[in-house]
């Protein structure tokens, strides 16, 4: 029988102490919110006041005034779809401390009835005891930037879908140009499709429209452009090209606007880092001399696999203020790129990473896939892991490494990226230890090993 450990009574008393005296919790729905305010009452008991507030700007502003008058120390919202935004933004503007929590973290105790009123009371009880972990909600300038970058990602995906539909249409017309061209978005392919729509059907004439490196593929283009493109294909292709042409200038406009918004962001700061360059006389940070703006996008773009657009998305998703993430591990954990440990008794195994931020994880996954094809430290890291863990886990590991590098670059405005080199692990390998391991393995097979140095 195992030893029984007794918990000191003072620890139990400390756990029963109230962390916050006056709290508010709101169970959010689309058209309203169930509000629960818990505060002290006579006799040392706690009082819960519950009412419904409409999800409109005037009603929420009146709620904010009431909560300020009552001296509420914390307001907790459950992240239900996007319905929490009106409560979060307006209550924050009233000067109230507001935290957003994930619905998975506030599930009710099994066996209790389920209703909005009971959920609001339960949320308030967790709030007053400090048992909730707030989600990261960036400040307003970063939220505005995030809206632009996410819209650009969505429109780019829509444009890609129209290119895929155009390729499918050409396949139906027996046109195999996508086999020869590297992408349907190339200028040469666009000229050929426009000529097909205009009525040109001669494959040799269409192949002559190739530009640049594709001119060397004209014989293959003649074979690929020999098909059965008719009038109904031309009509549908015109519609698809119109959708592509409508989206392209919108994406370009968003890209230009994103660049302006990033230039207007406050300087990057991190744990222990000043917001500006230190004054040589006092040593204090001078806000009038912020770090060079190259430290944001261009320094992130130095990382293999990350281009300017990817750097813009990363900045929009995590911001520039790394004081919200005390260490790189905090940022990696928030992004759900940390290895999970599942233990039951003596059995220990790793679990899958959860969903996390889909936009951040998507761009990091693309960056990891691009970095895996480079002759760099990240490329070598992928090659070492993929042999024993597979492609999926290797890409997650490289994405995690990229995010750690991003944290260090944003936490220190003067830091720059220096690649360790593809031979980093080779240069840091303990040769003698490796020899001993190989000898031990051969001796375990019943072999006698004699080492003879190779001739110079």
Describe it for me?
The protein has 456 residues and is of the alpha/beta class. It folds into 3 domains: 20-128, 2-Layer Sandwich (Nucleotidyltransferase, domain 5); 143-263; 269-276 and 283-340 and 350-450, no CATH class. 50% of the residues lie in helices and 10% in strands. It has 18 helices and 9 strands. The strands form 3 sheets. It has a 5-stranded mixed sheet with strand order 3-2-1-4-5, with helices on both faces. The chain has a two-stranded antiparallel ribbon with strand order 6-7. It has a two-stranded antiparallel ribbon with strand order 8-9. Helix 2 (57-69) crosses helix 3 (85-93). It starts with 8 loop residues before the first helix and ends in a 12-residue tail after the last helix. Mean pLDDT is 83; it is low at 9-15 and 274-293.
Describe this protein with a few key phrases.
single chain; 456 residues; alpha/beta; Nucleotidyltransferase, domain 5; 3 domains; 5-stranded mixed sheet; two-stranded antiparallel ribbon; 18 helices; 9 strands; 10% strand
């Amino acid at each position: 029988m195992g030893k029984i450990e007794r918990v000191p009574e003072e620890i139990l008393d400390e756990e029963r102490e109230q962390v916050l005296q006056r709290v508010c919790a709101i169970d959010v729905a689309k058209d309203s919110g169930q509000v629960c305010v818990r505060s002290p009452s006579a006799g040392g008991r706690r009082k819960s006041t519950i009412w419904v507030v409409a999800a409109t700007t005037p009603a929420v502003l009146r709620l904010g005034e009431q909560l300020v008058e009552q001296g509420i120390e914390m307001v907790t919202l459950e992240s239900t779809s996007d319905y929490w935004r009106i409560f979060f933004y307006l209550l924050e503007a009233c000067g109230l401390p507001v935290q957003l929590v994930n619905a998975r973290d506030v599930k009710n105790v099994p066996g209790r009835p389920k209703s909005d009123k009971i959920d609001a009371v339960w949320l308030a009880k967790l709030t007053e005891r400090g048992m909730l972990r707030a989600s990261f909600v960036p400040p307003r300038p970063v939220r505005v930037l995030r809206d632009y970058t996410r819209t650009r990602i969505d429109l780019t995906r829509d444009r890609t879908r129209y290119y895929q539909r155009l390729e499918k249409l050409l396949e139906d017309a027996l046109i195999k140009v996508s086999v020869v061209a590297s992408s349907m978005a190339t200028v040469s392919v666009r000229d050929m499709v426009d000529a097909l729509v205009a009525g040109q059907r001669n494959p040799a004439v269409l192949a002559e429209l190739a530009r640049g490196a594709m001119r060397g593929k004209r014989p293959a283009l003649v074979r690929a452009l020999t098909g059965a493109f008719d009038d109904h294909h031309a009509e549908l292709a015109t519609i698809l090209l119109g959708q592509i042409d409508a989206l392209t200038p919108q994406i370009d406009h968003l890209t230009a606007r994103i660049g302006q918004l990033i230039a207007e962001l406050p300087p990057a700061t991190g744990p222990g880092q000043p917001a500006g360059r230190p004054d040589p006389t006092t040593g204090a940070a001078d806000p009038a001399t912020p770090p060079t703006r190259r430290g944001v996008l261009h320094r992130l773009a130095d990382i293999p696999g990350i281009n300017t657009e990817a750097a813009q998305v990363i900045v929009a998703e995590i911001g520039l203020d790394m004081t919200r993430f005390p260490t790189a591990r905090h940022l990696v954990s928030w992004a759900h790129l940390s290895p999970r440990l599942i233990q039951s008794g003596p059995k220990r195994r790793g679990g899958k990473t959860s969903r996390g931020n889909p936009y951040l994880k998507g761009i990091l996954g693309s960056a990891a896939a691009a970095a895996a094809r480079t002759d760099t430290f990240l490329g070598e890291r992928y090659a070492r892991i993929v042999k024993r863990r597979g492609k999926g886990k290797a890409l997650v590991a490289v994405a995690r490494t990229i995010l750690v590098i991003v944290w260090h670059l944003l936490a220190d405005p003067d830091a720059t990226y220096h690649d360790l080199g593809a031979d980093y692990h080779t240069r840091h390998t303990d040769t003698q230890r490796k020899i001993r391991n190989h000898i031990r393995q051969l001796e375990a097979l019943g072999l006698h090993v004699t080492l003879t140095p190779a001739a110079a």
